[in-house]
Write a structure and sequence with these properties.
alpha/beta, Rossmann fold, 8 strands
Length: 333
């Protein structure tokens, strides 16, 4: 049965943590300070957290940490790509955990947040109680190529304006053409490119068109970081080795994980869930404490009437159910 989201609760603490010479990340805590510790990893790269991000979590069961990744949202400096890599973000999550005095926490991530959740867990498997993932993105070249060109087969009315904004050539593919405009010295050129990119992505997020989201996507505060950081990470191959997350899956298959995936996700296609399942099943467990149920630690739920967005009703309900089950399970351990 579909469920309403939890009511929005105010945060009980906010702050900025300096994580490098120039970067300070914004974070906030909400819920029950005595509850199960959890961290929310937003999407993008280039997204940010909002009060609605808290609404998947019971404020009685969880002590929730939300933060804006480097250069995003309220983190400073805004839209800074220097010293901004996947490993930097992994280090930031760990620095935040240490700063807050948390031993272990549940990791929640959707889209790019799922990439970061897997990468963080593989770097610090002893600090992760469990994972809830949504709209899986493995950070591969194939996925980036699909994002840039694949939707022309399903959403040509959305893709062609995106492609026509830049002139792709053999010497300058579409991604590089966008990067040139997003880093132009001219403000209007940068903003126009960011809006074209952001509207394209937002138009693909939900199964049914969302005019309000498309309108919001044109806001400079939303469009600029989404376009700039996605282009920055994409052209640098997400700062990961090929199939890095799948090749290292043995490090984390002892961690209970729930993956919620929209059947008609055009941004992060459902094929990724199969690749993760196959890697999970066929990999060797690196930890000495291997148990007989390592195979069953991955649960995949395909939502038949959903796209990529976390707030589509079936997806939101599945995410909340997973978090509620984790809260019962973790309180019993």
């Amino acid at each position: 049965m579909l469920r309403p989201l939890y009511p929005t609760r105010p945060s009980y603490h906010t702050g900025h943590l300096k994580v490098s010479g120039e970067h300070r990340i914004y974070y906030e805590l909400s819920g029950n300070p005595q509850g199960i510790n959890a961290v929310f990893l937003h999407g993008g790269p280039g997204g940010s957290v909002s009060p609605s991000s808290r609404r998947f979590f019971s404020s009685e069961a969880y002590n929730l940490c939300l933060f804006d990744q480097r250069g995003c949202g309220k983190s400073e400096p805004f839209c800074e790509t220097q010293n901004n890599t996947t490993q930097d973000l992994i280090d930031d999550i760990e620095a935040l955990r240490v700063h807050l005095g948390i031993d272990k926490w549940l990791v929640f991530g959707g889209s790019w947040g799922s990439t970061l959740a897997l990468a963080y867990a593989q770097s610090h498997p002893d600090r992760v109680l469990g994972m809830v993932l949504r709209g899986l993105f493995l950070g591969t070249d194939q996925e980036v190529d699909w994002f840039m060109t694949g939707p022309k087969w399903t959403h040509p009315e959305v893709w062609f304006p995106f492609a026509d904004f830049v002139k792709e050539t053999e010497a300058q593919p579409m991604l590089e053409a966008y990067w040139q405009k997003l880093t132009s010295n001219d403000h209007e050129t940068r903003l126009s490119a960011a809006r074209a990119w952001s509207v394209y992505e937002t138009s693909l997020v939900t199964l049914h068109p969302n005019k309000d989201a498309r309108s919001m996507a044109q806001s400079p505060e939303i469009a600029m970081p989404i376009a700039l950081f996605e282009a920055h990470f994409f052209r640098n191959k997400l700062f990961m080795e090929p199939d890095q997350l799948l090749n290292n899956i043995g490090r984390i298959k002892h961690i209970p994980t729930v993956l919620v995936q929209g059947r008609y996700d055009v941004i992060c296609p459902t094929y990724n869930t199969w690749r993760l399942r196959e890697a999970w099943t066929n990999s060797e467990v690196e930890q000495k404490n291997q148990t007989s149920d390592d195979q069953s630690n991955l649960q995949i739920q395909i939502i038949p009437d959903a796209g990529h967005a976390s707030f589509e009703s079936g997806t939101a309900t599945a995410l909340m159910n997973a978090l509620d089950k984790f809260s019962v399970r973790l309180r019993q351990t």
